[in-house]
Amino acid sequence: MTDVLPPCPACSSPYTYEMGALLVCPECAHEWSPEQVEETPERVIKDSVGNVLADGDTVTVVKDLKVKGSATAIKVGTKVRGIRLVDGVGDHDIDCKVDGFGPMQLKSSVVKKV
Question: Residue range 55-70: average pLDDT?
Fold first, then answer.
């Protein structure tokens, strides 16, 4: 029977291997002891007024947002349906499609849950 090794806690790579008493990630070179592996707390993302967001929620934009490469901005009150929570670039933690603009990432601090 083969033991299933946990993924790398630094980069989540599934290709970890044992080297002596340590586990090693070949992708990011992170080394850790199997005893150090802890459960990561569940990530909670809240909107601009403190409501907890979940995948599939509908939100509205609470301030005008300039969009790079576009002459127009996303206006206050624009509804965004079917959001997906992600670890995006910087503070951008919502992946969505905005009507008239296409797919993009938004910050949870600029939306309000409907």
Answer: 94
Q: 72, exposed or middle or buried, with CB in 10 Å at 0-12, 13-18, 19+?
A: exposed
- Residues 6 or more apart whose Cβ sits within 8 Å of residue 106: 61, 65, 80, 92, 94, 96, 98
Residue 50's Cβ-side half-sphere holds a number of Cα atoms within 13 Å equal to 0
- Count the neighbouring beta carbons within 10 Å of the beta carbon of residue 39: 5
Q: Domain segments of the chain: what residues?
A: 1-38, 58-113
**Residue 41 above 80 pLDDT?**
no
pTM over 0.70: no
In this structure, which topology does domain 58-113 adopt according to CATH? Answer: SH3 type barrels. (2.30.30)
**Chain Cα centroid distance, residue 39:** 18
- The label of the residue with tokens 């992708």 reads 27
